[in-house]
Design brief:
- The protein is of the alpha+beta class.
- It has one domain: Up-down Bundle (Outer membrane efflux proteins (OEP)).
- It is about 65% helix and about 15% strand.
- It is built from 10 helices and 4 strands.
- It has a 4-stranded antiparallel β-sheet.
- Helix 1 packs across helix 8, helix 4 runs antiparallel to helix 9 and helix 8 runs antiparallel to helix 9.
Length: about 475
């Protein structure tokens, strides 16, 4: 559209009719163009959080990786246990022999015969420090992997919920931008008609057009944010994401229970990351003792039974049955320093694991405090944002009334409208932030399980409704 400056004489001629036309125009804008709908329909095919969670638990590789790590630790423990149990071996030998002997005159005599030999041996550890402490270490590793598996489950549940909520937030933002775009477009059309009647200045039209251009830019970014957030969720469930159940409009969140010290105590006692590191420290300590076993003697009970009809150098003999029961004592004297080096390595590994455990503890404590403070402040922010929305609505109505009497410009009305949309965005984001903070608090306290996601799912719109 082409805009021209209206001559001053034409403006003076239109002053009498401008007030009446502006009043009718303002009423028309307030009734139709400036309506702010935030209605997000829920298609029948929309999925809830529980459905997405089930898919993530089946498709996310982290679950399988943690499970295999646990199975490997069980296999290692069975190997360590096997070294403590009797070692039974059986062997047999069949031979075809030729023996040449010479008499005093050096005349040879040839003998051909078959030989058979059967052997059964049983060895049982009575004392072996390395073997015993090795079994103790593998049992701690099993507990460590079990806690890590539980921690991985919590991580996946938290991750899938945060990504689900990110999609909802992106959808809400896009809906608000599109609603604002529609409203501002109507304003632009009406202000342009007023300009053609020489009732507003060209700067008013240009201001509305500028706002319209900015909203179109915001819409492009919002559409991209929706696609990116859906891709993040697709990564977890390994299938495209379509429609999701949105958050209920008038959800009332329960008050945050207990103090921060209560949640810190829970985290210190129940957090899978901390518990896993505790077992890792114990396993490292057992490895030190296992390495020290190289300095200790070993004692084994040995049982051997043999049947044979050949003797030394496969000489043919009558069949003999030999049974042996005894104790074998091995005393290490010198191994070139390798045993001491193993002990030192294990000691350094134990020190390293202790530091990693301390780092994990500090991280969990910090994250628990942050989640608690975030959940507590987000509840207050929700209430403040609700008041802000009401205030913004009143401000817009006041601007609308003032526009009828010509005391404000259309730019003031647009600014009031923009503030109301921003207040609505802040309210929605505060709700999503509270859900995220609450879930992170439960996660770091070691209590995040599928039932918690069922609670969050109850805060969503039902696709059946």
């Amino acid at each position: 559209m082409r805009f021209e400056i209206v001559p001053v004489r034409l403006k003076l001629a239109a002053l009498r009719s401008r007030a009446a036309l502006r009043s009718r125009t303002a009423l028309m804008i307030s009734v139709s163009a400036l309506a702010i709908p935030l209605l997000i329909s829920t298609p029948a095919s929309a999925e809830g959080l529980v459905s997405i969670m089930d898919k993530a638990l089946l498709a996310d590789p982290r679950i399988s990786i943690a499970d295999y790590q646990y199975r490997i630790s069980e296999d290692q423990d069975r190997q360590a246990l096997g070294a403590m149990l009797p070692q039974v071996r059986a062997s047999s030998n069949f031979s075809r022999n030729e023996r040449k002997s010479f008499d005093q005159d050096n005349n040879p005599t040839h003998n051909h015969y078959d030989g058979e030999k059967y052997n059964l041996s049983v060895q049982q550890v009575i004392y072996n420090k390395s073997v015993f402490d090795g079994r103790n270490r593998t049992q701690h590793v099993i507990k460590q992997r079990d806690f890590e598996k539980n921690g991985t489950l919590g991580e996946v549940l938290l991750d899938v919920t945060e990504r689900y909520i990110a999609v909802l937030a992106a959808n809400d933002d896009l809906a608000l931008v599109q609603s604002e775009k529609e409203t501002v477009q109507k304003q632009l059309d009406q202000v342009s008609r007023l300009y053609e009647k020489q009732l507003v200045k060209v700067t008013d039209v240009l201001e509305v057009q500028t706002r319209m251009d900015m909203i179109q830019t915001d819409e492009i970014e919002a559409e991209n944010a929706v696609l990116v957030s859906k891709e993040a969720l697709t990564e977890l469930i390994n299938e495209p994401v379509d429609q999701l159940n949105p958050l209920q409009e008038n959800i009332s969140f329960p008050a945050l229970e207990n103090t921060v010290n209560h949640w810190l105590t829970k985290a210190r006692s129940n957090n899978p990351q901390i518990l896993a590191m505790d077992e890792a420290v114990r396993a490292s300590l057992s490895r030190i003792e296992e390495s020290k076993g190289g300095h200790y003697p070993t004692l084994d009970l040995v049982l051997n039974s043999q049947k044979s009809d050949v003797g030394f150098e496969n000489v043919a003999t009558n069949r003999t049955d030999t049974n042996y029961l005894g104790l074998t004592l091995n005393v290490p004297l010198y191994s070139g320093g390798s045993t001491s080096a193993k002990v030192q390595e294990a000691s350094n590994q134990w020190s390293l694991t202790q530091l990693e455990r301390e780092r994990t503890l500090r991280f969990v404590m910090k994250s628990t405090r942050e989640a608690y403070l975030g959940a507590k402040s987000s509840l207050k922010r929700i209430k403040a944002s609700e008041r802000s929305v009401l205030s913004a609505q009143k401000s817009y109505k006041a601007m609308d009334t003032s526009f009828k009497y010509g005391t404000v410009t259309v730019v003031d009305v647009i600014n009031a409208l923009q503030k109301e949309y921003q207040a609505r965005r802040d309210l929605q984001q505060a709700k999503y932030n509270h859900i995220n903070f609450w879930l992170r608090l439960v996660f770091f306290a070691g209590e995040l399980e599928p039932s918690k996601l069922v609670t969050v799912n109850s805060w969503l719109e039902s696709s059946e409704g």
